[in-house]
Amino acid sequence: MASAKPEKWNQDSSDSVSIEFGPFETVHRWKKMPECDEFVGTRRSKHTVVAYKDAIYVFGGDNGKTMLNDLLRFDVKEKSWGRGFINGPPPTPRYHHSAVIHENSMFVFGGYTGDINSNSNLANKNDLFEYRFSNGQWIEWKYSGITPPARSAHGAAVYDGKMYIFAGYDGNTRLNDMWCVSLLGDPREAQWQKVDQHGECPPTCCNFPVAITRDCMFVFSGQSGAKIDNSLFRFSFAEHKWTRISTEHILRGAPAPPSKRYGHSMVAFDRCLYVFGGATGNTLPHDLHCFDLDTLTWSIVTPSADSTVPSGRLFHAAAVVGDAMFVFGGTVDNNVRSREMYRFQFSSYPKCTLHEDFGKLLEGTPLFTDMEFILMPYEHRVPAHTPLVAARSQWLRQRIREARDDAEREMERLAEDSSLSDSISSAVSSTAPLHVRVFDADPEAFRMVLSYIYTDMIDPSRNGERDPCGSEATLVMIQVYRLACQFHMRRLEFLCRQYLEAVISDRNVLEALRNADRLGVKFLKEYCLKFIVKESNYNAIVMSREFECLEQPLMVEVIRRKQLPPHPRSWADSSCPSTPQHDPAVMKGSLEEDMELFLKNVGKEFSDIILMLDGNAIHAHKAILAARCSYFEAMFRSFMPQDKTANIAIGEMIPSQQSFQSLLRFIYYGDTNMPPEDSLYLISAPYFYGFTNNRLQAFCKQNLEINVTFENVIQLLEASIQIQAADMKKYALTLIVNHFPKVARLPRFRQMSKEVLLEIMEALAEEIDNSRCLDVCNATSVNRAIDPPLACPEGFSAVGDGCYSLEKIKQLRWEDALTECIKRGGYLLQLESRAELAFFTYHLLLEHSDCSDWRDPGGKCYLTYHRHFT
To answer: Which InterPro entries would you find in this protein's record (predicted)?
Structure first.
């Protein structure tokens, strides 16, 4: 049996976590703010908003009849609207301009000006105005030298003291040029510079948003005529280089990017970009899309249940204040301008590293491997880890069982061989890996499947080393598809089909047809034949040189297929149905889902380490523990126990069984859902066990801050007492005191130990203020208020004038003392110890938990009590 502590463990590290207690805004909640009244500012679209300190500033736009140049201010804390203070003439009314913040000023560039009502004096501008928040002064900057062409519907950003202008519309054509000007110089002598852009520059476009984060500018979609798409581009300010962020070739089952659109908004927060609204064809979607810059995946943010989600809109504007996004105005249905303001509460969690952690098990020389795949007929050996393989494929799980049975039979044979000592036999049995043979498996394709087993992802381009749509990558992916079918991995099979159908083009369709026919992949062969005989593809493909080299049977099949009537049913092969694009059942079987089922169902069968927690055995798996926690990696590398048993603790604290199960769920499949009391045990676990980041701690902290209620506070109190968490104990006691009538009626209340009850009673006693108890010096008035004054009950003696203390308290039964006090009434009791007061108060409140004062059965007088600690 072994135990260890991580090298960097510091017992005080968990104490540095700051727990704050509400009220908190619900994560991912849309909330409608007060609308802007008409007398403050009219409804509008095509305006700009910027965030400065704790306020949102709105400038310009149009209300459907006229252009605007007013400045509105929304106070985020006060949730109130007002007009911005202005000193000097503002810019001319305009819309589709840009506005950015630099230091203590707002800078407004360009836009479309004129009278839209009379359709006169309409023109794009290239002027630059500065609004200084300190004194409300508008200043027009003057240029010397070259200037950018006048434009509107462009993008603007500030980086390193410079304002950058990109793309837009100049009145005749869309642009994709970039200019910059220093905002640190003299406003009277500004100089523009044209930026020399490199890389894969976005097409000419307008009505798109930009967002700045990680020293880069991001541009998503926009109006580009026939070239409009849903690509996301990144511009590096340091290199002046554009990169199209391409992820569609990576197989991982992630949601598709948002559809192409224009007039939308995009903001950056934490490690994500958030896209809202815009127009997609004839629709105005109101989904909020999130792009994770770490994992390069899109997702749709699910609003909280109590959200007031804004309707779809375009030409609105958004800005970030603190940890929230504010969306104002825009054009909604029927071309109506809006004056609504909405607030969206962001979440900010460290990313989930589950996939990366498991993927590291395959890097370099794999550690803790306990099995080998033997790829036939190459005899190629690939090391792997039994628990992960068994979790992802039932077919492979059965092969592992068969290999284990073969190994056991071999050990029995060796044990019967008298020439082999018991020690050697035992050593062989504990170190020899299981052997699983896989027939007709391409080594590269198999390694891709193994990568998918560990990370839920396959990159056919090999990190950009080859063309993901080329013949080489396509051939490998066909082999991956065959292995997915063999291993009964439906999700991977579906992803392979999606990929292969997406990459087929007139450049590679003949090679794909040839490989599909040779390898017996019927669905792909059928898809290629359909693609070739399409009216738009047939002539070009048949007249190509590659078609001349096509095998004669395939050539004949193509020609005959072309002669068939264009009826899909006549082409279809019943043995290869079309790819189910929206079948959620097919997409089940993600890494998280498979690991959850493995832990709950068959994991014990493949256990290779036993964790002892307070005398209870928990079956686990070395590879998974080591991949996720540096604590276990160090233990299994250097201190591997001979009996394969390890004691479990978090520092000096032994977690509860329930909390450790929550920890295992996080380790195995990244689950962060747990009761608040488990969060109290585990909030320091990331430090002790050495997780990749503090994601678990962030969720524990949030869970303790917002999910503690009177219904679960008893469990939290018991946990805080056990682990000596003073702050959390104090908070739990305060919550109990404030909701004592409800807490006292919970079934769990009757199950508490005497020590915990006394803690609660002490807190109740300390909570009583001068409005609910009388000082000893005022006790006379209490007793005199009773007419007639009552005699001191037996067992009590007078203290002062009309105040009594309990003598020989330990000789009396508490029930008798309580009954006597209630029956006689009107006595201020001074108890002699904290424990006596606590227990007395407990009985008193159980009898009269709905009252702040208590009447005797006759209803003539009040019973009050006073706390005094000797």
So the answer is: BTB/POZ_dom, C-type_lectin-like/link_sf, CTDL_fold, Kelch-typ_b-propeller, Kelch_1, LZTR1/Attractin, SKP1/BTB/POZ_sf
